[in-house]
Design goal:
24 strands; five-stranded parallel sheet; four-stranded parallel sheet
Length: about 425
């Protein structure tokens, strides 16, 4: 019997545990280890940050639903991965042995890269549920005391979608409150142009997002590098195409929400030879560590080079469907190794399907594959996309409750559009 430990119960870890157990069956043990007892649907955090969702609406108990599929669960904070001895060590000094480890740990939020950044200082975040709840308090204070707002993504950020979502959602909240005319909003981003998204754009993302910002009277600054933040003032350099400082700004704000750069969490980054300099796991095309043959990884914790060199550093986003394709490949490759005793052959397609809310409308893009050159590069907006985001939230939570990572109707519906999780599916 093989024991597979999945570290991290996020949008990658939960599907991975379900798929691995489904493929390996009762003969092998799958154990989920996570520092919290609840799964949280992170893409809904911008709604939590403005009071459109309560935490209970986007959280489900992990142990209860995993148990329905005979998957074990330990709620513990892991302080060390002893890769040479195939062990995890917890904060309580408990030892968790494994035969195979799947790392789905997500990122560490590197607010410390920008002085004054983060909820402990002067900017808000929607990257965790706790941060979103803190942001909600700050939004309430803004409504009580209207003033300038800054929203965006710091240099080195790789996840731009939530920043765009938040600025449009906040605009809607302020209009509903009847105070939008008292709240000037600026979008500050490290992207070289609006709609770059860390992907060098998708379809008409540049023109469509610029138009959406103009319609809402939201100004923007691209190629922005934030020097430091004081209480109520953000100091920003705008760079030109050669990376030289073109303009300096000292912008006042009553409220700010910024996406930070991501790095690997300490317990993963500290494993010798496992990660790159930023702490992201180095894997081969089959999602297996290039140093440890019994360690696989998928999701935000994986090292992927940026789409292109930009004047201000931008990273490559790891979108939801892309992460699911990684985890499907991991599950299939573990099945190949453990059950069939053959080397991995499966590779995720890394196709991207992204649904973003924009307050009273929304946007959807499809990039197949996510990394250019692409077979499909499509971007569209409309009220239907806003409704689709609401529907997707309910659908994904239902999948995590039912224990089905990829229901047949989803698989074949996407296949009709030429979208599949695996680049090849052979034994």
């Amino acid at each position: 019997m093989a024991k597979i430990v999945v570290l991290g119960a996020g949008t990658g870890g939960m599907p991975a545990a379900y798929e691995i157990k489904h493929l390996l069956g009762q003969e092998h043990q799958v154990l989920m280890v996570n520092e919290r007892e609840n799964f949280r649907f992170i893409p809904s955090n911008p709604w939590v940050a403005v009071g459109w969702r309560e935490p209970d609406a986007i959280s489900i108990p992990i142990a209860k639903h995993l148990a329905n599929k005979h998957i074990d669960f330990i709620c513990a904070f892991v302080t060390k991965i002893d890769a040479d001895n195939n062990q995890l060590i917890t904060a309580e000094n408990d030892i968790i042995d494994y035969d195979y480890l799947v790392i789905a740990s997500g990122p560490k939020l590197a607010f410390d890269a920008i002085p004054g950044a983060g909820p402990e200082h002067y900017t808000q975040s929607v990257c965790s549920l706790e941060h979103a709840l803190s942001c909600k308090e700050n939004v309430d204070a803004l409504i009580a005391n209207p003033g300038p707002v800054l929203v965006g993504a710091f240099q080195g950020a790789s996840c731009f979608g939530p920043a765009y979502e938040y600025v449009f959602i906040l605009d809607k909240v302020l209009r509903d409150a009847g105070i939008r005319k008292h709240v000037p909003i600026q979008f500050i981003t490290s992207e070289p142009y609006i709609g770059h998204l860390g992907l060098d754009g998708v379809g008409d993302s540049k023109s469509m997002l610029e138009s959406a910002l103009r319609q809402r009277d939201i100004k923007w600054i691209c190629n922005a590098s934030v020097d430091y933040i004081e209480k109520d003032i953000m100091h920003i350099d705008e760079l030109d195409r050669k990376g030289n400082i073109d303009f300096n700004y000292s912008l006042p704000f009553n409220h700010s929400m910024f996406i930070p750069p991501f790095v690997g969490i300490d317990v993963v980054a500290n494993v010798e030879g496992l990660c790159n300099k930023k702490g992201f796991v180095i894997t081969d095309e089959h999602q297996r560590s290039t140093k440890y043959s019994n360690i696989f990884a998928g999701g935000v914790c994986v090292a992927i080079p940026p789409a292109q060199s930009t004047p201000v550093p931008t990273g490559m986003p790891k979108t939801g469907y892309m992460i699911e394709s990684m985890m499907t490949a991991v599950a299939q490759n573990l099945h190949s190794i453990i059950v069939n005793n053959v080397e991995p052959t499966h590779k995720g397609t890394w196709n991207a399907i992204c649904i973003a809310d924009m307050g009273d409308t929304g946007a959807v893009f499809i990039a197949t594959p996510q990394i250019a050159p692409r077979n499909v590069s499509w971007f569209a907006t409309g009220k239907w996309a806003h409704l689709a985001k609401i529907g997707f939230e309910k659908y994904f939570l239902l999948k995590m409750k039912s224990g089905s990572s990829e229901p047949l109707y989803e698989k074949y519906a996407l296949k009709l559009m030429g979208i599949t999780r695996l680049e090849e599916d052979k034994e």
